[in-house]
Amino acid sequence: MIRGIKMFKNISLPLKITLIYFLFSLLWIYFSDSIINILVKDLEKLQFLQTIKGWFFISLSSILLYLLSKKLFSYVEEERDKLAKANELLEKVLENAPVIIFWKSKKGVYLGCNTQFLELMNLKSKDELLGKTDSNFAINEKEDYISDDMLVMSTKQPKLNYIETITPKDKTLKILNTSKVPLFDKNGSVIGVLGVIQDITEEIEKQNQIKSQEELLIQQSKLASMGEMIANIAHQWRQPLSVISTLSTGMKLQKELNISNEDYEKQSLDNINANAQYLSKTIDDFKNFFKKDNPKSSINTKTLIDKTIKLIDSRLKIRDIKIVQNDQEIEFDSYESEIIQVLINLINNSIDAFENINTNKYIFIDIKKVEDNLIIELKDNAGGISSEIIDRIFEPYFTTKSEDKGTGIGLYMSKEIISKHLKGTIKAATVDFNYKNENYTGALFTITIPLNKISTTE
Ligand SMILES: Nc1ncnc2c1ncn2[C@@H]1O[C@H](COP(=O)(O)OP(=O)(O)OP(=O)(O)O)[C@@H](O)[C@H]1O
Ligand SMILES: [Mg+2]
Fold first, then answer.
1. What is the pLDDT of residue 446?
2. 69 CB neighbour count, 10 Å cutoff
3. Among positive and negative, which fits the CA dihedral 267, 273, 274, 275?
4. What is the per-residue pLDDT across 60-109, written as a single tens digit (0 to 9) for each?
5. Domain with CATH 1.10.287.130 in the chain
6. What mean pLDDT comes out for the span 355-379?
7. Which CATH superfamily is domain 97-199 in?
8. Does residue 254 have a pLDDT over 90?
9. Residue 196 CA, ligand 1 centroid: distance in Å
């Protein structure tokens, strides 16, 4: 019984109406005939009552039909309202969605779109689009669009998030991130294709702008360190060049005075050669440092610090600054030039900070491995960084130095190299510490480089 009621609830309204009418008629005919046959025996009266019953049945069934069809019509009306509302909502969704949408038939005929798509195609109304295919439009890339539609529909597989362009007539090129998905009917057959597009032209332009700004900064930072390097080369060359010139003028003088001595000449030439080798070696060191896209290599902490110091030795010596490093040697794989560049930036900052300091000047470099991270700590005793500026020192062009002394990109570039290239972090702090029974305050830079996730050269 309950199952019967449930089944009745699930059937469609027209069938329900028919069944109610059928049931009502059946019951009416059966019961009214039986009652009349029991109550009335007179044939004439029976005939009369049958006529009355017929009229009564027609009136009752008309009322019933009226009520049922009223119900049917209000149901249809309700459904139509619901459909209209759903359509309206769908239209609103399509128009307000932050994406460009269109859909086409199996033959590539445009069936619908939102206003954003019309704008992209440089069309004024849907009439200019609907019923047409891509070949009707003067767009350079139309062949690609058609073959993508074909691919999506024939393979029944979506093609998602790919970059393409559109160059409508009289309009500039736009860069698009497009996804196309096949549309299926109830039976799973392909009936068309739906396209969803995001216009990423502005985003790409912004990215390009940022990239060229970054390139400019890198260039500036390279030029700045190149200036320092040249000063260094000049300093490192002064001594051997003066040895070479003294020896060669000595030899020339001896020749002129006719007192040349073969042993002395040989010794002088060997000496000149050794100094020339040294000159060439210093050039190699600098060249290697400036080489672009050096590969990842095995690095020893001691050699790393030695190479770094060699590149800025003259600045340290002139100012009598001592580098104190821990004895423990560690081997690790990373990008040597990049780490050296960062260390040089940090050491140069410490050297600048020592400008008005007259006590012992130290730069401590401590490198250790903690789990899978390489931790480099570089600390000086130059007084530290004041709390008012410490949060800003990694910003590009932030400097407290005069124009000829600093541009404010040293720490910015260091952070870029550490975070983008080496996937690590760099932090700054001011610390108080004791060294050889003296109390000092200075800046501490802590660099953490994860050793297993260093990126490829960017
Ligand atoms: N070791 C340090 N001690 C004290 N202050 C420091 C130290 N390192 C950096 N600073 C402060 O941070 C600022 C920013 O440093 P950053 O290296 O980015 O630029 P800069 O040295 O001023 O110029 P550039 O490096 O471009 O020549 C410096 O101007 C300085 O005020
Ligand atoms: Mg600097």
1. 98
2. 12
3. positive
4. 888 888 888 888 889 889 989 999 998 899 889 889 989 999 999 999 99
5. 203-291
6. 93
7. PAS domain (3.30.450.20)
8. no
9. 49
On the question of pLDDT at 211 being above 90, the answer is: no
The size of the chain, in residues, is 458
Q: What is the DSSP letter of 135?
A: G
Around ligand 1, the residues with Cβ closer than 6 Å are 224, 345, 349-350, 353, 380, 382, 385, 393, 398-401, 406-412, 443
Q: What is the mean pLDDT of residues 101-125?
A: 94
| Nearest residue by C-alpha to atom 5 in ligand 1 | 385
The pLDDT score that the predictor gives to residue 134 is 94
Q: Is 181 helix (H, G, I), strand (E, B) or coil?
A: strand
Bigger pLDDT: 10 or 77?
77
Whole-number pLDDT of residue 103: 95
Give Cα separations from 135 to 140, 143, 144, 152, 171 (angstroms).
10, 8, 11, 18, 18
Measured CA angle at 233 (ends 228, 236), to 5 deg: 125
CA distance 129 to 136: 9
Tell which CATH classification among 1.20.1250.20, 1.10.287.130, 1.10.1040.10, 1.20.140.10 matches the domain 203-291. 1.10.287.130
pLDDT number for residue 455:
45
The Cα 170–Cα 179 span in angstroms is 25
pLDDT at 222: 67
With CA atoms as reference, report the closest residue to 272 among 256, 292, 293, 250: 250
Please state the atom number of ligand 1 nearest to the C-alpha of residue 413. Answer: 18
Asked if residues 294 and 336 have their Cβ atoms less than 8 Å apart, the reply is yes
Closest-CA residue, ligand 1 atom 31, reads 400
How many angstroms separate the CA atoms of 129 and 104, rounded?
Answer: 11
CATH 3.30.565.10 in the chain is located at 295-458
For the stretch 272-287, pLDDT in tens is 888 888 788 777 766 7
Q: Which fold has domain 295-458?
A: Heat Shock Protein 90 (3.30.565)
